[in-house]
Design brief:
The chain is α+β, with helices and mostly antiparallel strands. It has a domain of 105 residues. It contains 4 helices and 4 strands; from the N terminus they run ααββαββα. The strands form 2 sheets. It has a two-stranded antiparallel ribbon. It has a two-stranded antiparallel ribbon with strand order 3-4. 10% of the residues are buried.
């Protein structure tokens, strides 16, 4: 019984090998294709060419102008008299992270940001990270700024336990 299983295994391996060889022989299409004719390659196009001159594109200029207009409006909108006058304005680039502006100017700034988005085809998108901190818009020296406040309950409990109120 053992010799017949050995013979069967040997025959199976031989048949599989023959079938594999036949398949690879039939896969080769070069027998039926006409012989390739050598082609002379024109190397004149392969030579390095000088760089093209830089073009000043009007879209780029309008994008830069829109960016500077937005930044100027944000800078001018940071006046305040009390903490209630300020709100967060974290839109990312080109505005700095953790930016606070006057609440009365928020609508005008949003419209200016839309103009910036319409003018600049390639914008940078990113979120302003604050980690384990909570952002709060406050008025300091008649200018809206952002303060980071810890919202880590373990840190707060530790500080209370130690009798420390503020860092």
């Amino acid at each position: 019984m053992k010799s017949s299983s050995y013979q069967t295994a040997t025959i199976s391996v031989v048949v599989a090998t023959v079938l594999w060889l036949a398949a690879t022989w039939f896969e080769d299409d070069s027998r039926w294709l006409p012989p390739a004719v050598p082609v002379d390659i024109d190397t004149s196009m392969a030579a390095p060419r000088p760089d093209s001159p830089v073009r000043i594109d009007t879209d780029v200029l309008s994008c830069a102008q829109a960016e500077s207009n937005l930044q100027e409006k944000v800078d001018n909108a940071q006046y305040c008299y009390s903490d209630d006058d300020c709100t967060l304005f974290d839109y990312g680039y080109p505005i700095q992270c953790l930016t606070s502006v006057a609440t009365s100017e928020i609508t005008a700034l949003r419209l200016e940001y839309r103009k910036y988005e319409a003018s600049c085809a390639y914008r940078v998108y990113y979120d302003c990270p604050s980690g384990e901190m909570e952002r709060e818009a406050v008025c300091r020296n008649n200018r809206c700024t952002v303060e980071l406040i810890s919202n880590d309950p373990l840190q707060d409990a530790t500080l209370q336990y130690l009798g420390i109120k503020d860092l």
